[in-house]
């Protein structure tokens, strides 16, 4: 399998599967001396995990990460104060599968002869044969995206230290669109949404706030606690506070389910998605990713254009389209309408619009980078569908499936945010190196 690696100077390799022992992300290119904890990585992982709200799958994976390599387990010399700081070696993060019970495996065993329409199960069977990891769709499951979030969090943290902020929100769901919101306001609301989710997540509170798992513990000590947690998943989930929409709005200023910066639009989205779910079907939508503070000139031409690299977000499961700036809408514009005119203001370049999405010629213009991802409806639905038997090629019928995500949109945005961070950091390292080297060139 050759498709599980990303990046040139900031590299990520992922492995594992939905019902294997777990998943891993190996990261190369992170600088030494950066503080890193499992608690902060989990704060991003909890945003995409299932079972968190009414629009996600009932699977109960807590997605607890373990930093296995890449940080100093203790001070390198007494008084160095570099314990738990990155040391420049590859960082590897393990995400064990804890909600992995035979009853769920058996459900897949009973249906694996008949691939689910819209899933990769038929194509992967053709490619890998009868040994294909078909239980829970293996690495083709949305579960693998936890590795992108874990690695992307590290990239996002490094970018922040270099003045670049990456965030994402839900732009459209079930046919309901959110109006445009100023980027700074959307960023502030997205940060508040994340804070709300941390406050309401029972595993964040039980495992990290109460310090059942800490960075001072050895790997085997953590695994001992994880073995306990596996038997306590239902009890810990039962400690989650009830989401009170009005209380959350008053305290955090955000919607209780959807990371959409316009509350009224979020309410309409939730209602529209629930109406579709009630029929046994699923809904799709659009996720918007924004990067602020990207320096002009970042990126490369031709085959490595920055917008083309961001187009790699098509690698996120369920994403069927990526557009930059005005995207497909440019087909209905004239050149005058599409062009982002410029003027000089106090010695700085100011653009009149941002139809280019902050990228021209594959290089950043210094404007906000804006990308939107089209997310398809969840293919697993509560309706009977026609399919085939993978072994006999006979036409047959697939029964309705109730253990499912009514929509994936609410779980895609944190993946998109962190995936974009991986791409931007990889380009930033090259950009800074190129600029530094250029300054030393003799005329």
Features:
single chain; 443 residues; alpha+beta; Chorismate synthase, AroC fold; 5-stranded antiparallel beta sheet; 34% helix; 17% strand; globular
Care to describe what's here?
The protein is α+β, with helices and mostly antiparallel strands and 443 residues long. It has one domain: Chorismate synthase, AroC fold (4-Layer Sandwich), CATH 3.60.150. The protein is built from 13 helices and 16 strands. The chain has helices at residues 38-45, 102-111, 121-128, 145-161, 183-200, 202-209, 219-230, 233-237, 245-252, 263-278, 306-310, 335-338, 409-439; strands at residues 5-6, 11-16, 22-28, 66-69, 91-96, 165-173, 176-177, 285-292, 319-324, 342-345, 348-351, 359-360, 363-364, 369-375, 385-388, 395-398. The strands form 5 sheets. Strands 1-2-3-5-4 form a 5-stranded antiparallel β-sheet, with helices on one face. It has a 5-stranded antiparallel β-sheet with strand order 7-6-8-14-9. Strand 1 and strand 2 form a beta hairpin. The radius of gyration is 22 Å and the shape is globular. The chain starts with a strand and ends with a helix. The mean pLDDT is 92.
State the major sheet.
5 strands, antiparallel
SS-based structural class?
Answer: alpha+beta
> What is the fold named in CATH at topology level?
Chorismate synthase, AroC fold
Outline: globular
Mean pLDDT: 92
Counting structural domains, the number is 1
Major β-sheet strand ordering: 1-2-3-5-4
The CATH architecture assignment turns out to be 4-Layer Sandwich
Report the CATH superfamily. Chorismate synthase AroC
Q: Give the number of helices.
A: 13
Radius of gyration from CA coordinates:
22 Å
